[in-house]
Amino acid sequence: MMDVFLSEVRYLAAAADDFVEIVVAAGTDVSNIQVVVYNEFGTVEGQASLGVPVATMNGYDVYVLTDVDMPGSGGVYKTDSVALVDDGVVTQFIGLEGGATLATEGPAAGLTSDPVPSINNDGTLSVKSYDGTNFITEARDEGVFTPPCFAPGTLIETKMGPRAVETLMPGDKVCVRGGPPEPILWVTSRTLRLGPKTLHHGPIEIKCGALGQGLPERDLVVSPQHRILLGGHGVEQQYDVAEVLGMAKGLLPMGGVRRMKGKAQITYHTLMLARHRVIFAEGLPVESFYPGLYILRGFPASVQAKITTLVPTLATNPGQGYGPHAAPVLRRAGVEQLVKFGQAQTPACGQDRVVPVQQAGPDTFEAFVA
């Protein structure tokens, strides 16, 4: 993998939503690195230095440049080309929508952009690379950026009782709904700097008792995409199933749930088991990490390799190789619909929640409690 490369170019959105993302080996001096956007005629539309990283993840700093950072660019258009320039040398020059543009000025003058094929989609598109060499074009997916994560200090129910998420390691057993404790397969964390460009990644706080039955037992802070187990009459009536997993950000319209503001950064912690499971955070039933196709692609190649080593079926079947979800999944709009009618609540799950019984003998350490 290259030490500095274009990892994503978002285009065909509103200009304010377009961006260029660059991945750099953590700690690298980026003072001489620039991104230059060229139009189809080969002239410069906008350019900018990298500034301050918005996140550090798995050994890489992530930088995001928007049209605000590149005055005059007006966002990124489908006929544009994007150049990455390191100390005056063009290290990458890609053309969107299959276009090949001859630059007539600026640092790429005399060079022709390498075309990235289009998938002929009229929606918001991204050109992405996970190694700096191979590029793909794909439609935007709302779950691709921030995997389900917990904030530091979140208490996870384990075989040995509640433990802060940041202290958990592979092999530690966590309580799962409907079965005995299962070992953690993989953990990771990343620190995200919060600002105007990353507000949509900011943490969601669910206040103590907001979802009924006194749950969560303490204020719970999770990433926006983290799914919560919801149930009750409203779910059965609308979706003809007993329970669903819904994104935390879909709960924002209800009382006791808010997007936290004023934080300079947040560290997110992720837990993956051998299969998708409902686990317990601050007593609330929530999901463990599910390495779906788009979320998996959002990690650097080295992390993807680690995950597929742990779950080999993901290498041959990246879309479904991890197995089924622990419960049917609702998108944000579906969760908001439940909130609208006052039907977003946690299911009555005490009868099959596995918790440690400290007074039990060694052969009966786990027990089902009502």
Summary tags:
nine-stranded antiparallel β-sheet, single chain, 5 helices, Endonuclease - Pi-scei, Chain A, domain 1, five-stranded mixed β-sheet, mainly beta, 2 domains
Shape label: elongated
Structural class: mainly beta
Low-confidence stretches: 120-124, 139-145, 349-370
Would you report the number of β strands? Answer: 26
How many H/I helical runs? Answer: 5
Tally of distinct domains: 2
Sheet with the most strands? 9 strands, antiparallel
Radius of gyration: 23 Å
CATH topology of the largest domain: Endonuclease - Pi-scei, Chain A, domain 1
Q: What percent of residues adopt helix (DSSP H or I)?
A: under 10%
CATH class of the largest domain: Mainly Beta
Q: How far apart are the first and last residues' alpha carbons, in Å?
A: 52 Å
What's the architecture of the largest domain, going by CATH? Beta Complex
The amount of beta strand, in percent, is 35-45%
**What is the averaged pLDDT score?**
80
Task: Give an overview of the whole structure.
It comes from Parasedimentitalea marina. Residues 148-292 form the Hedgehog/Intein (Hint) domain. InterPro entries: Hedgehog/Intein_dom, Hint_dom_sf. The chain has 370 residues and is mainly beta. It has 2 domains: 4-139; 155-290 and 325-344, Endonuclease - Pi-scei, Chain A, domain 1 (Beta Complex). The chain contains 5 helices and 26 strands. The chain has helices at residues 233-239, 293-297, 301-310, 313-316, 332-340; strands at 4-11, 19-25, 33-38, 44-49, 55-57, 60-66, 81-86, 89-95, 114-115, 125-129, 135-139, 155-158, 161-164, 173-176, 179-193, 204-206, 220-222, 227-231, 243-247, 257-259, 265-273, 278-281, 284-287, 329-330, 353-356, 366-369. A hairpin with a 2-residue loop joins strand 12 and strand 13. The protein is elongated and about 65 Å long.
